[in-house]
Structure formats: structure tokens, C-alpha cells
Design goal:
Layout: H1 3-13, H2 22-30, H3 37-42, H4 48-58, H5 63-68, H6 71-79, H7 81-84, H8 86-111
Helix pairs in contact: 1-2, 4-8
Length: 112
């Protein structure tokens, strides 16, 4: 793959991934076949900042977990009112990392 395309992708999407994943993503994109580039370009990633805002405003209802795709945990948070508030507070610190990990899963699904 063209390194200029890879650099543009990295600049536009680096906030959606953990910092330790970025070198692996770059290497994988450089070795990627040109036919899969369209799939990588069109993959939608969730914004970690948006997930944090959702968690702060409506995390007790599990909406933050529904947003990132953790339906089971979202239902559990909804039924327990955010684990009586404790789970809700813990998610304020974890939800951005969870969102970035889910984005990495989406990236890997797009390239395979």
C-alpha cells in the first residue's frame, strides 16, 4: 500500500485507537493489499470522547455500553442502575479505553 495513504489514514484516525496499537496498525496497512483499502477507509469508528460524555450523562442506564457495542453489559447496567452507581463511576475511567479496543476489533475485522 502507498505510504502516503497510510499516513493520511493514521493522521485522520489515530484518536480512535490506543497509542500502543498505532505502530502495528501502520505496519499492517503498509503490507495490506490494495483491494482491501476501500473496506478500511469506509469502516466507521466510535469516538472515545463521545463515549465518555455519554457515560457521564447517561451511564447509569447503560447507554455508554450500548454505544460501544457491549449489549450484554449495557443490559446489566440498565437493570442494576449502573451497579448502584459504583459501576457507573468505574466506567467513567474505563469507557474511553473500551471504545478504542472495540475500534481496534473493527479495524481487524475490516482487514481480514
Amino acid at each position: 500500500m502507498d505510504s502516503q495513504k497510510v499516513d493520511m489514514f493514521m493522521m485522520a484516525n489515530s484518536k480512535f485507537f490506543e497509542a500502543h496499537h498505532l505502530p502495528a496498525i501502520r505496519e499492517r496497512l503498509l503490507s495490506l493489499d490494495e483491494t482491501k483499502w476501500g473496506m478500511v477507509q469506509t469502516t466507521q469508528y466510535k469516538d472515545p470522547t463521545t463515549s465518555l460524555i455519554i457515560s457521564l450523562l447517561a451511564g447509569g442506564l447503560g447507554i455508554d455500553r450500548f454505544y460501544v457495542g457491549d449489549t450484554g453489559l449495557g443490559i446489566a447496567k440498565l437493570l442494576t442502575c449502573g451497579g448502584l452507581g459504583i459501576w457507573n463511576i468505574v466506567d467513567w475511567f474505563l469507557i474511553m479505553g473500551v471504545t478504542r479496543e472495540k475500534n481496534m476489533e473493527n479495524f481487524q475485522n475490516a482487514i481480514y
